[in-house]
Amino acid sequence: MRLVSRSHACQVIFALLCLNFGHASADTRSNGRHMDFAFVLLKKSELPSGDAIVRNFGVFSADGQTITQLATKPSDDGTGQLLEFDLSTCGNAFVTLLPVPVPNGEADEAARFSISSVGTNWKLPPHAAHLLVTLSGSSKAPTTARLSCLTSLLAAVSKSSTAVGIYWGNAGATHDPEFFDSVARSSDLTSRLMLWSGVSVARESDGRLSLLSLGMKQLELPDLMLIASKSMKGQDALATFFDLLAYEAERGKPIPEGDTVGRTAEERIPVQYVPSPLDNGKQVWRVEFK
Hints:
The structure is a single chain. Helices cover about 25% and strands about 30% of the residues. The strands form three sheets. Strands 1, 2, 3, 4, 5, 6, 7 and 8 form an eight-stranded antiparallel sheet that branches. Helix 4 (about 145-160) crosses helix 5 (about 175-185) and helix 6 crosses helix 7. It is built from seven helices and 15 strands. It folds into two domains: about 5-190, no CATH class; about 200-290, no CATH class. The chain has about 290 residues and is of the alpha+beta class.
């Protein structure tokens, strides 16, 4: 298993600094602000209508989110235009057209980590350009609230454009726009975690299904490795997987080693911490169903 490269994300952080968005830093935090971003991949190189984004945002908004368009102006580097919005509960958002594909096949590689490709073998169609969608808000805001705002905005931008994919680099996944649209219509945490974290699917030596999350670092939480029992169907394993991620996210802190989790009050599966199969320097919490 291999995690997708983050080189384009690093290039984007540098570009944001050059564009003087004002709140970005090397770790996307500065002066009490936090920046989240993802990419909408386009069939045609064109900036969507700001009015359409505002209109479609209402389809996906959650927790009282509202949006107001502030400006359409040339980007600071002179290569195109950007749209600016005020998201009342979340901060300022920018949508910038980059008239080239995401380089190095990163977005294509990440498609296999979206559950929109599980069982469907969905692959990212060719894209001619991409939109950089950024959200800059207070670093004191709950992480789940920030990511939920970005989710609603991405869905609105996708629905307003010729989107062929949504590449969420920090989730390690590129999602099918139809899947993203469908999931983003629900505001519950379990559903939105399906967009915030990709999943790496593998098989243990005995044939059991293994699932590893890729995006929990965004919530400053460890990723989950779930080993399904031989009797567990794939859909049941995925449902349990995201239920456990939602439980961790609701807690807001890692589940202690030795604590138990389960699908029922009677089921008690111990939590263990082990090196990540993708990075021995990081720990993941492991739950094994016998």
